[in-house]
Design a protein that fits this description.
heterodimer; A: mainly alpha; 5 helices; B: about 280 residues; mainly alpha; 8 helices; about 0% strand
Amino acid sequence: MANLTSEQVKELADNLLRMTNALGDFRYENYSKLNPQENKRLKELHNNLLEQTTELYTKSAVLVLDDAEESLNKVKVITAKTQELYSNLDNIQKGINWATKILGMASAILSLNTESIAASIKSIIS
Amino acid sequence: MKIFKTFLFAISFMSLLMGCVNLGHVTNFSKTSIEALQTYGNLSQSFTSVCTQDCELKHISNYNVYKTKCECGGNVKADSITNAIYRATVEYLHGLMAVSDKTSAKFETADLTNTLATGNYGPIKLNSEDVASYSKLTSLILRAYSGIRSRKKINSYVTEGHEPFQHLLYFLEFNLSQNLNGKLEVQKKSIQNFYFDFVHDTHLSSYERTKFAEDYFEKKATIERHQNELKLFGDLVNEVKEGHKLLLQNLDQLTDEEVKNNLAKTAQKLALGARIISQLK
C-alpha cells in the first residue's frame, strides 16, 4: 500500500465519522435495552472513535503523502457494512466487538503506518 | 513661443495618458479579494480552539477540574500551516494591486519568506509540490515590488502566479471548509454523546433533564453557526479563484468592457460575502 494524500486522509476521516455515527445511533436507539455496562462500554467506544476521527481531520490538514486507492475502497466497503450492521443489529455483544475492531483500524489509520492500516483492514474484511 | 511650449506640453501629456492603461478594475478586484480573504481573521474557530474545547468537554464528562492540560500540538501545527497559506495568498493579491495600480502603497513582506519555506513543523512532512507553490509565489511577490510597473509586468505576474495561487487557495479552502468543518462535525456528535445520558436519566428531575436538553440544542446551534461561517469563507475563496482565472484568461483584453464588468461583478460578490462574514460574529 502506497502513502496517503491529505485528501485521502480526509476521506478516511469522513468514513470513520460515518461508522462512528452508526455506532452512536445504535446506542441511542437501543438505550432502553442496554444494561448499564453495555451502555457504558458503547459510550466509551463511541467517544474513543470520535477522538480518533477529529485527530484524523487534523492530520489531513498537515500531512500530504502519496497514493492509496485500493485500501480506501476497502474502507468504503467497511463503512457501508458498519452502517448496515448497526441498523439491523440484534446482538449487543456483536456490536461491541465490531466497534472494537473499528477502533483498532482507526488507531492504525492515525499512525499513518500504511502496513498496519492494510493489516487491520484485512482482519476486518476476512 | 509660450503658447507653442504649452501646446507641446499638452501633446506630451496626452500621449502619456494614452499610453497608460486604466486597470482600476484589476486593482479593485485585488482589493476586494484581499478584504474577502481577510475575513479569515474573523472566523470564530481554529484547529487549536476546537481541540481545546474538545479537551475541556472530556474533562467535564470525567468531572475533572484538576490537571486539565490539553495536548493540542498537532492542531497548533495545522493552524500554522493554514495561517502561512493564508498570508501568502493575501500578499500575492497585494502584489497584484501594486502592479495594476501605480498609486498603491508599499506593503510589508518581511514575514513572508520566513514561514512555510523554513519547514519548521517537527515531524510533519510537507509535499515538495506544496512548498514549491509557496516559494514560487513569495519570490514572485517580492519581484512585484521592484523595478518599473508596466502592462507586461501584470501579464507575467498573473501568468506566473496563477498556478501556485490556485494551489494555495485550494489548500486554504480544503483545510477550513473541509478539515476544520469535519472537526466541528465531530464536536457536534461528541456533545450529543455527552448530553444523551443526562437527558434520559430518570433519576434526575424533569426540570434538570429539560435544562440539559436546552443546553445541548444551544451548543449545537453555536457549532452550526461556526460551520456556516467556514462554508461562507470557502465560497469566498472559490470566488477569488474564479476571479483570478477570469483575469488570466483575459490578459490580452483587460480593457474590454465585458471583462471589466465580469471582474466588477466578482468584486461585488466578494465585498458582499466579506460583509456577511464580518456581521456574523
